[in-house]
From TrEMBL:
This is Multidrug resistance protein B. PROSITE patterns: MFS. The chain crosses the membrane at residues 12-32, 52-72, 79-106, 112-132, 139-162, 168-187, 199-218, 230-246, 267-292, 304-325, 332-351, 357-379, 458-477. Pfam families: MFS_1. Belongs to the major facilitator superfamily. EmrB family. It comes from Bhargavaea cecembensis DSE10. Coiled coil: none annotated.
Amino acid sequence: MNEQQLHAKPPYAMIAVLFFGAFVAFLNNTLLNVALPVIMTEFQVNPAQVQWLTTGYMLMNGILIPASAFFIQRFTNRNLFLTAMTLFTIGTLTAALAPSFIVLVIARMIQASGSAMMMPLLMNVMLVAFPVEKRGTAMGYLGLVMITAPAIGPTLSGWIVQHYSWRVLFWMVLPFAVLVILIAFFRLKNIMETRDVKLDVLSIILSSLGFGGLLYGFSMAGDKGWMDPQVYVTIIVGAVALTAFIRRQLSMPVPMLEFRIYKHPMFTLSTIILVVLSIAMFSGMLLTPIYVQNVREISPFHSGLLMLPGAVIMGIMSPITGRLFDKYGPRTLAISGLLITTVTTFMLSRLEMDSGYFYIMAVYTVRMFGMSMVNMPIMTNGLNQLPMQMNPHGTAMNNTLQQVSGAIGSAFLMTVMNKRTETEAASLAGESAGLPDAEAAAVKAQIAQEALLHGINFAYFVCTVIVFIALILTFFVKRVVPPKEKAEAMKAAGGDPVKAGKSGTHTPQHE
């Protein structure tokens, strides 16, 4: 099927299958978080060990997502999707039957090896299947899957773990994964061109050490502290390997991951804004449950429930903002969204010991609403500036940096929170001096909660400053046309750039 046929009649049935598979895989990303304490008890492991269920998953994503540009160019979208879903299904079954903790960790990494391919593959299919004037809407529906599934995970798993075994989390996902494979086997077609690109083994090794080292080091920093050798050694190794990886890619005629895409200014600007947004979103998903559970002493299930409306709103808004992007461009949406995000993040930096449950829910939900106006429009606009053959590299780069920035940002803000908590606890400690033991214990507990509240508020204030920087950057965003569409418009206008802006496409070069 050629490009004109695709644009005239996009393969909606095939895309629905891809969406279904991606939803199942993305739901699994956060499904296990609430179950970690139960798994610790069953397998008798400590917090540092059980963290490998999420760290191992993240590491596998960090290793494979940068290589996704190679896989997408080298293999057909049908074979790649079936392989990814098969690996995910094998991992899910292994996890459900896991007799030991180490088997469960390996199963999670097998799952991740499949799900890591989903988002880059889906994005590239959408960019190929839809013309530029409809990409915003299409990517908006993709955003619905990408955002809603992981956000629903904690609430759903909280309810399941409260009533059933943690293994039900995997048994529940398994039949849907098998169903996706069966449907995809009969319904999936190849719509993307393949190229005979060669796999550079050294690039894979450097990429794995680079992105994997940074992800691991920063994700462990919040727990172990920055001065732990396990943290700073892996970060240094990751930084050195990543530098070598970038230098190698720039010297290769056909690189595994094309860093020259950053010569396109709107793609570069969109990447910076998306990195900031990832830091804000991941940190919010981390700091809010800590406040709700540890300061307000609300149950994990109700903590997950508090975050659910935000996920639903973000999912509903994603297709709507996609349509608005197609009509009005990215700048107005991004400025409005980041203004809302900045204000609501600042409001979360002013929480009290007795802030109401529904107040927190409302502020968090409005914050997610603001983010929904930024994410897909800015991403789509940046990708629109790349030539079609660069799309696999653009999507791989965006997904990798969102993973890395989310881990780095969360670790940084967790460190900010911990340091401020320690400082406040030390300054308040004098209040319990000289009191009877019974009273002193109660005062110390109160001081610990107040110190934690100060730490959370300060971390949210730092996050507010970071988001405000992204807000300033959005004023420099311009609407762009993919090079191919722009060339066709110029040709139709007889080489007149003024006429070209009014013909050949509904998308002007600048807002």
